Amino acid sequence: MPKKNTAIAIVYDFDGTLAQGNIQENSFIPNLGLTTTDFWKEVKEITKENEMDEILAYMYLLIEKAKEKKVSCKKEKIKEHGQSVKYFEGVEQYFARINQYAKDKCIDLTHYIISSGTKEMIEGTSIATEFKCIFASSFKYDHEGVPEWPALAINYTTKTQYLFRINKGIYNAWDNSSINKYTSPQKRPILFENMIYIGDGATDIPAMKMLNYQGGTSIAVYSPETKEAKEKAQELLQNDRANYVAKADYSDGSEIDQILKSILNQISTKASVEQYTK
Fold first, then answer.
1. From which domain of life does this come (predicted)?
2. Cα–Cα distance, 95 to 161 (Å, whole number)
3. pLDDT of residue 2
4. Which residues contact 195 (CB under 8 A, 6 or more apart)?
5. What are phi and psi of 42, to 5 degrees?
6. Can you say how many angstroms the Cα of residue 65 is from the centroid of all Cα atoms in its chain?
């Protein structure tokens, strides 16, 4: 066993990785009287017409449509929509099981979210407390709790920044002095090589590639519902974006369950050897 516990982080995208579809589609968009197809089509149109980041466009449209339909979009109301999320198989039971497995291996395992989805909704889910930090797109609120401006918009390239924040132990989005300050690898709370990133699509590619380059591990998951999702995930593997591909089923003994346990074993064994040979 290692002389001291090994710090390992599992970092997740949310939509399409732990939860089925986009979190806004469960109840928020239907409450606006819109179909998901129409909503995302309008997002695309706004993006092109205004040379706009797509994440900012969807955040803008959510609030504009809520005002138009007189649907409350106060922070506590947005958060409530997280309660209607639909998880993939085994997600709610997975964390306790993998945490215990890690503990038995003398691993300090922590979980993080890096998502383009709506932070307030993710914070309203039943699994929100499982994460040490949730980095996701969020709003700035006025004194009455009403959104007045995007506070944070996380897109496919900015996701990489938050891997560095986890690596350096910076659990906020505003501390830029610490993120840019040189810190020797030995003083960083979680080494990149001890990080595992789990995502499902194109928005995760930069994070996967960066982590692979740094010696970490990336896993592409796919919804078991469609053949197309599996093919897209396999492309990530074939193009060296992901190290593993697995169905988004987090049940005990599932493919991803076995992959994660194998990776935890490898990291723990490597850390043990390094500690005893110093």
1. Bacteria
2. 25
3. 44
4. 8, 9, 10, 11, 163, 166, 167, 211, 214, 216, 217
5. -65, -35
6. 26
Contact 17, 199 (CB under 8 A): yes
Pairing of strands 147-152, 107-118: unpaired
For the beta carbon of residue 79, count every other beta carbon within 10 angstroms. Answer: 18
- The size of the chain, in residues, is 278
Please write the tens of the pLDDT for every residue from 32-81.
999 999 999 999 999 999 999 999 999 999 999 999 999 999 999 999 99
Task: Work out the number of other CB atoms within 10 angstroms of the CB of residue 78.
Answer: 26
39 close to 5: Cβ distance less than 8 angstroms:
no
Q: Taking residues 152-178, what's their average pLDDT?
A: 94
Closest C-alpha among 107, 101, 109, 124 to residue 14: 124
**CA proximity to 245, closest of 232, 234, 253:** 234
14: which residues sit within 8 A by CB, 6+ positions away? 23, 113, 115, 117, 122, 136
Using DSSP bridges, classify how beta strands 195-199 and 217-222 pair: parallel, antiparallel or unpaired: parallel
Which domains does the chain carry? 6-21+86-277 (3.40.50.1000), 24-83 (no CATH)
pLDDT at 241: 86
Alpha-carbon gap, residue 9 to 112, rounded angstroms: 7
